[in-house]
Amino acid sequence: MLSLLLCLKFMCTGCGSAIDTALQCESPETQDQQGATTKIHCPFCKAKNQVVFTTDGAIHAVTRARTYERIPEPSVN
Ligand SMILES: [Zn+2]
């Protein structure tokens, strides 16, 4: 079983802070066709960043992950 330790560096979509994270990838050959996606919480502003990367360590996109579980619901009166 191959596993790969990747170091990803990106800018937080919430506050713009530089985030360094290390990620363990299992069986990278299954992932490098389309890239892999991971969600990383910013330690500073708690924003959830969705990072699209390939197993060579290249980051392809960083977007703000949508937090479906915390959608504010308007109260019905
Ligand atoms: Zn942040």
Binned, the helix content reads under 10%
**Poorly predicted runs:** none
* Order of strands across the main sheet: 3-4-5
Helical/strand content category: mainly beta
Number of helices: 0
Average pLDDT rating: 82
What binds here, in terms of ligands, is: zinc ion
Provide the gyration radius in Å.
15 Å
Identify the overall geometry: elongated
Work out the oligomeric state of the chains in this entry: single chain
Number of strands: 5
* Domain module tally: 1
Alpha carbon gap, first and last residue: 57 Å
Q: Percent of residues in beta strands?
A: over 45%
Query: In sequence order, what are the helices and strands, one letter per element?
Result: EEEEE
Largest sheet: 3 strands, antiparallel
What does this structure look like?
0% of the residues lie in helices and 47% in strands. The strands form two sheets. The chain has a three-stranded antiparallel β-sheet with strand order 3-4-5, with no helix packed on it. The protein has strands spanning 3-11, 18-26, 36-41, 48-53, 59-64. A hairpin with a 6-residue loop joins strand 3 (36-41) and strand 4 (48-53). The mean pLDDT is 82. It contains no helices and five strands. It is an all-beta fold and 77 residues long. The chain has one domain. The protein is elongated and about 55 Å long. Zinc ion binds next to loops.
Describe this protein with a few key phrases.
single chain; 77 residues; mainly beta; 3-stranded antiparallel sheet; two-stranded antiparallel ribbon; 5 strands; 47% strand; binds zinc ion
